[in-house]
Write a structure and sequence with these properties.
Aspartate Aminotransferase, domain 2, Aspartate Aminotransferase, domain 1, seven-stranded mixed beta sheet, five-stranded mixed beta sheet, 11 helices, about 35% helix, about 15% strand, globular, pyridoxal phosphate binding, pyridoxal phosphate, Cystathionine gamma-lyase, lyase
């Protein structure tokens, strides 16, 4: 009999109970290990392996539905590990043209190495038309920041039929919201900086796969470029997993409540949240997601209105990340890397009381309009 997500998150990766030992052993700080004789064993050098990583990777593998996980110093280190370890000169890579802007920035790097990159939007599974001859297909669903959703199983089946590998950036959903490996993907990738660790104080990422060969390839990339996490960050991330289900459920419920409240505001256009029944992505999201995430996006009349709105919020910080227990929001167009309107807002819902957060947002809209 299976266990619930909360039970899984609390116990994931923790060692068996041992008398006088802590439930989660503290971080191991080591550049080297005692290693007499032949260099054999699980821990040989600090850039290769670390006992604190081992426990976190076991936990992430359990959350991913049974997989080998490799942790990295950041989400982009995890993204780069897949893209740069699997692609060679002459290979074709298919990527969304609306995914996270720093992931898109790797297009130029891949092309400088002699790869060819095709891009298309996430919505309506548009990448289906780009798959012929591809070596690797990169998906991001829901997309950041517009929250479009693509059909992972459909795209993965089509890509595999053409001999391509598929990687899914699962940052926004986390493994408790969506399991790309169960839907056929070869890699599940995430910036654990965001909702998975959930406190806005860590930089971390991971790659999960059920292929030992693919797992070894990303581990080798981590070793050779040194994109390793610190032991303290890894320990804090593992500690944070215990509340993952609680955080996600509260955030998703509040995000839906906020989205429903925003539907009736005349200042708001282009409202997106996959959990809304009338959202363009809802039908696909329901088939493959168990939780719809913490991010709501919408567009206000112009840049000045958006800035007044953000300045009027009292419970919400202006910050560029998402997934924290603290609600954050930003005018995404200030970075210049996304094709969004000047008044486009990416709003990350935290774990504050739902009624308080919704009231704060509605009050800020009213104040911005006067």
């Amino acid at each position: 009999m299976g266990i619930g997500d909360g039970t899984l998150a609390v116990g994931a990766g923790r060692p068996p109970a041992e008398k006088y030992a802590p439930a989660l052993p503290g971080p191991v700080f080591a550049a080297y290990y005692h290693l007499p004789g032949e260099p054999e064993g699980p821990y040989t050098y600090g850039r290769d392996t670390n006992p604190t990583w081992t426990l976190l990777e076991a936990a992430l593998g359990e959350l991913e539905g049974g997989a080998e996980a490799t942790v990295f110093s950041s989400g982009m280190a995890a993204v780069a590990a897949v893209l740069l370890s699997q692609v060679r000169a002459g290979d074709i890579v298919v990527m969304p043209d609306d995914c996270y802007q720093t992931t898109r920035a790797l297009k130029e790097r891949l092309e400088s190495y002699g790869a060819r990159v095709r891009t298309g939007p996430t919505a309506a599974d548009a990448q289906l038309e780009l798959l012929d001859g591809a070596r690797l297909v990169w998906l991001e669903t829901p997309s950041n920041p517009r929250l479009d959703v693509c059909d992972i199983a459909r795209l993965t089946g089509a890509a595999h039929a053409r001999g391509a590998l598929v990687a899914v950036d699962n940052t926004l959903a986390t493994p408790l919201g969506q399991r790309p490996l169960d839907l056929g993907a070869d890699f599940s990738v995430a910036s654990d900086t965001k909702a998975l660790t959930g406190h806005g104080d860590l930089l971390l990422g991971h790659v999960a796969t059920r292929s030992p060969e693919l797992a070894e390839s990303v581990r080798l990339w981590r070793k050779t470029v040194g994109a390793i996490p610190g032991p303290m960050e890894a320990w804090l991330a593992h500690r944070s997993l215990a509340t993952l289900q609680l955080r996600l459920d509260r955030q998703a419920a509040s995000a839906l409540a906020l989205a429903r409240a925003l539907r009736h505001r005349p200042e708001v256009a282009g409202l997106r949240y996959p959990g809304l029944p009338d959202d363009p992505s809802h039908e696909t999201a329901v088939r493959q997601m168990r939780r719809f995430g913490c991010v709501v996006s919408f567009t206000l009349p112009d840049e000045a209105f958006a800035e007044r709105f953000l300045g009027a919020l009292s419970l919400v910080a202006q910050a560029t990340s998402f997934g924290s227990v603290h609600s954050t929001a930003e005018r995404r167009g200030r970075w210049g890397g996304d094709a969004v309107e000047p008044g486009f807002i990416r709003f990350s819902v935290g774990v504050e009381d739902t009624e308080d957060l919704v009231a704060d947002v509605l009050n800020a809209l009213t104040e911005a309009a006067t």
